[in-house]
């Protein structure tokens, strides 16, 4: 991935704001009281698709139209939020969007993808198997295969980091979830483009800790499974291009348990009345784990999405 300049990110912002407004970042007093530090929440649960990925979808489709004007449409694999963003952005530009999800994927996320104009295909036992099927369908239907990580996706996602750092330039630390890595790479890119000093801390699930294991080993490590209810974190093997960025640019990576994520979801609800999906709450969960080291500091947490099935949320909140 080439290094993004401030100009790159500002250009991306102009494209993004044609399709959606900037999202808010709020300092929530009850969270700050609970954790003993100033907590800024970046509300990516308030985008048109309920998650941060839509920003990358918008910039990616603009690039695709320019770089591959012959493309009739796209195909991609997802657990949900990336697929919604691709369907939303492709439909807006009149392109076909074929979305491959693993079997047993979130019914509500599948419905949302269809609602935004995507065609949903269920295949395989997990995200990695769905990805292989997407590559096959791309050839079969002559569609452009959207990778889970790409400079143009990161460029769009970096617009949320630009908004956050513009509103709160003196953040000491920002916690950001890691799935395929566009979020953390975007936060690192925006921080560096603005010349800021904030520590960027990645967050994974203890049940899908490949990014943390890789970060600590200094080379890519794979896990046997990625069985976490935080489906946005459910990746067995880091994407090499993303790993290259966060291996260098992140301060550390924290692993949080299923119960710590569930507790953070409940805290979001009681302290801010916001809905967070598992991956969306993981950054706050990591701050809660590290609250001792964060006393008196200025901290940002990315609430990356709120797309959680009702039955799962009912179980967590109950």
Structure description:
The chain has 318 residues and is α/β, with parallel strands linked by helices. It is built from 13 helices and ten strands. The protein has a six-stranded mixed β-sheet with strand order 1-2-10-7-8-9, sandwiched between helices. β4, α5 and β5 form a beta-alpha-beta unit. α1 crosses α7 and α4 packs parallel to α5. It is globular and about 55 Å long. The N and C termini lie far apart (43 Å). Its cofactor is pyridoxal 5'-phosphate. Keywords: Lyase, Pyridoxal phosphate.
Number of helices: 13
- CATH fold-level assignment of the largest domain: Rossmann fold
The level 1 CATH classification of the largest domain is: Alpha Beta
Strand count = 10
Rg, nearest Å: 18 Å
N- to C-terminal separation? 43 Å
Report the average pLDDT across residues. Answer: 96
Keywords:
single chain; 318 residues; alpha/beta; 2 domains; 6-stranded mixed beta sheet; 13 helices; globular
List the helices and strands and how they pair.
Elements lengths: L5 H14 L5 E3 L1 H7 L2 E6 L10 H14 L5 E5 L3 H12 L3 E6 L5 H9 L3 E4 L4 H15 L2 E2 L5 H17 L5 E5 L4 H13 L4 E7 L4 H8 L22 H10 L2 E5 L1 H15 L5 H12 L8 E6 L6 H8 L1
Parallel strand pairs: 2-10, 3-4, 3-6, 4-5, 7-8, 7-10, 8-9
Antiparallel strand pairs: 1-2
């Amino acid at each position: 991935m080439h290094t993004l300049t401030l100009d790159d990110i500002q250009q991306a912002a102009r494209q993004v704001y044609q399709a959606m407004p900037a999202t808010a970042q709020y300092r929530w007093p009850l969270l700050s009281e609970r954790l003993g530090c100033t907590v800024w929440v970046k509300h990516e649960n308030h985008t048109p698709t309920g998650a941060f990925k839509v920003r990358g979808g918008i910039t990616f489709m603009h690039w695709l139209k320019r770089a591959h004007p012959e493309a009739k449409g796209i195909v991609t694999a997802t657990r949900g939020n990336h697929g919604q963003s691709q369907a939303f952005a492709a439909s807006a530009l009149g392109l076909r969007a074929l979305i491959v999800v693993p079997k047993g994927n979130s019914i509500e996320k599948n419905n949302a993808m269809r609602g935004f104009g995507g065609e949903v295909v269920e295949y395989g036992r997990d995200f990695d198997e769905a990805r292989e099927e997407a590559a096959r369908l791309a050839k079969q239907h002559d569609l452009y295969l959207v990778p889970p990580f790409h400079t143009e996706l990161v460029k769009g996602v970096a617009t949320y980091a630009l908004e956050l750092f513009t509103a709160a330039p003196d953040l000491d630390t920002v916690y950001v979830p890691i799935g395929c890595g566009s979020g953390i790479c975007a936060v690192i890119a925006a921080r560096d483009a603005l010349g800021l000093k904030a520590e960027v801390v990645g967050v994974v699930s203890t049940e899908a800790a490949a990014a943390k294991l890789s970060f600590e080993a200094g080379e890519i490590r794979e896990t046997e499974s990625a069985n976490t209810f935080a489906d946005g974190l459910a990746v067995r093997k880091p994407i090499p291009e993303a790993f290259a960025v966060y291996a260098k640019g992140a301060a550390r990576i924290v692993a949080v348990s299923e119960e710590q994520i569930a507790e953070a979801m409940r805290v979001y609800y009681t302290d801010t009345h916001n809905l967070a999906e598992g991956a969306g709450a993981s950054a706050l969960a990591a701050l809660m784990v590290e609250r001792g080291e964060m006393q008196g500091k200025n901290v940002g947490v990315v609430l990356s999405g709120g797309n959680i099935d009702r039955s799962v949320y009912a179980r967590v909140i109950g």
